[in-house]
């Protein structure tokens, strides 16, 4: 937990620097920074929040299972997470911009000085990430309890899986 503040600062710094770089590369064009904005004609604030919570929820569920869980196959975690980001962007991109990460929205907003509706892109992904991680932890604990009640040691299952791969 002590690394979280440093991680947040690094994410925000990277987002701001990337946004400044895009603006510079495209001759100061504000649209070049890929500002996250909802589709103005069809999306209400409630829809943006619901979509961003849902997109981030599924992303965090995949990250928890593929990258953070010791039982996951690390070599495939990048593919699983990348495919989830791609699918989320494909499904939610036109509707909300598919931010899924507050830093992804804060950097461009700072560069173009446009903070209208930014709060939704901060609050919703945090809620979605916490919900996704909480569900994954709950399911993981339930699985471990089921194996314990059945007299199965989780280490034996993992060693058998690794032996067959």
Automatic annotation (TrEMBL):
Keyword match Transmembrane helix: yes
Membrane topology: Multi-pass membrane protein
A Pfam family the protein falls into: MIP
PANTHER family tied to this protein: AQUAPORIN NIP2-1, MAJOR INTRINSIC PROTEIN
Keyword terms: Membrane, Transmembrane, Transmembrane helix, Transport
Signal peptide residues on this chain, from the entry's feature table: none
Compartments it resides in: Membrane
GO molecular function list: channel activity
Transmembrane segments: 7-26, 46-67, 79-98, 118-139
GO cellular component: membrane
Family the entry assigns: Belongs to the MIP/aquaporin (TC 1.A.8) family.
Full protein name: Aquaporin NIP1-1-like
Top-level taxon of the source organism: Eukaryota
Principal location: membrane
């Amino acid at each position: 937990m002590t690394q979280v503040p440093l991680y947040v600062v690094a994410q925000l710094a990277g987002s701001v620097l990337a946004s400044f770089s895009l603006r510079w590369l495209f001759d100061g064009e504000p649209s070049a920074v890929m500002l996250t904005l909802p589709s103005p004609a069809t999306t209400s604030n409630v829809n943006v929040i619901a979509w961003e919570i849902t997109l981030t929820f599924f992303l965090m569920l995949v990250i928890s299972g593929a990258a953070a869980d010791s039982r996951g196959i690390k070599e495939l975690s990048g593919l699983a997470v990348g495919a989830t980001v791609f699918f989320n962007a494909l499904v939610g991109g036109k509707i909300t911009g598919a931010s899924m990460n507050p830093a992804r929205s804060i950097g461009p907003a700072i560069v173009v000085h446009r903070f209208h509706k930014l709060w939704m892109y901060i609050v919703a992904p945090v809620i979605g990430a916490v919900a996704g991680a909480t569900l994954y932890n709950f399911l993981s604990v339930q699985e471990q309890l089921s194996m314990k009640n059945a007299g199965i040691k989780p280490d034996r299952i993992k060693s058998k899986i690794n032996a067959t791969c």
